[in-house]
Amino acid sequence: MTYFIDRRPNAKHKSAVNRQRFLERYRKHIKRSVEDAVNRRSITDMERGEKISIPTKDISEPVFQHGPGGARNIVSPGNKEFVQGDRIRRPGGQGGGNGAGEGGASNQGEGNDEFAFTLTREEFLEFVFDGLELPHLQRKPLKSLEEVKMVRAGLSRDGVPARISITRSMREAYARRIAMRAPIKRALKEAIEALEEEERKDSVLRNPARITELKADIERLQKRIEAVPFIDTYDLRYHQLSAQPQPSSQAVMFCVMDVSGSMTQNHKDIAKRFFLLLYMFLEKHYEKVELVFVRHHTAAREVSEEEFFYSRETGGTIVSSALKLVNTIIKARYPPEKWNLYVAQASDGDNWDDDSNTCREMLVKQLMPQLQYYAYVEITPHDHQSLWHEYESVAGHFPERFAMRQIVEASDIYSVFRELFKRRLSQTN
Q1: Residue 274 within any structural domain of the chain
Q2: Which domain holds residue 393?
Q3: What pTM was estimated for this model as a whole?
């Protein structure tokens, strides 16, 4: 009989297995609550857990029970109390029902509360980013020897128990036993034949001393055979591992944010929340992704994470300055043949007079041939301006790798983020 023992550590009085089963069963309700939580949260508390409530009627389970039994005469549809034309008296009381079993108020003081529980930080983020991924992520040629895979490279006599080769060790032990027992068995066979020959002689010719000696030899040889160990440390063989270089799926994400004067504080807050979601998503799901933060107005600068989210610098608007800086950084530090390159841009769409044409030319001729994916979000409740229309032309050239969405208010952030980074079924890594 086989026994499976779950040794995962559980918190006191809690079962990790049952909790995961519960989360999976009510995934639809939890995801709805998580989406509402993301939309109403501020930037500073995006990563904490969340208290979730599920109506009791949604967690009820069907059960088998005994029916009334016996012989019954039923006429359906219809009833025994009313006929056509009867007037039904209005129910008494102030409420529209007794509330029992519905979670509502009752004049009898009875009802059911909603079932509430708290998602941990990890569980909350798991639901937030469920079904998302970096589009078109590819395996790139090796950049350095940092990323390796340990593969089996023959056998050795030294190693740790976890890497022992059972089959090879038993084969070695079997060969050793054969080799060690073979001469002893030959001597044993000769001694037995000599004893049998001596015992077949007549009592006059039989040598009792010789018989005693042969019996002692047989007993000694049998003990030597039994003393040969079934397995010895000499027999043990271990799988030897060697580091084999692997293609790297390393990627870099350029976060480009417009901080010009036309971006109101509300626009900037929405952009920061979008990029914070992106930052958390990459941090949780990818180990080999680097982040480059770029802020721009009339000029663009590469900044630190803290300055990207909290600096108050502002000015006019020249979007092409950010694209030129991104292209310069790619040439200097991130060659496309070794890196997966991504850009996420947030702006209100306002731009200098003829700069939108420059942006289109740069994207089509320089940036997009190098990038895996470009995501542009325009934060504005108004009609689109020239930058959006020029970007539409870029999307026409690269329909699979250039995506653009509009955000009107904070409640749109999460849905737009999921649209931009949803898992593509046809994607191959």
Answers
A1: yes
A2: 251-420
A3: 0.55
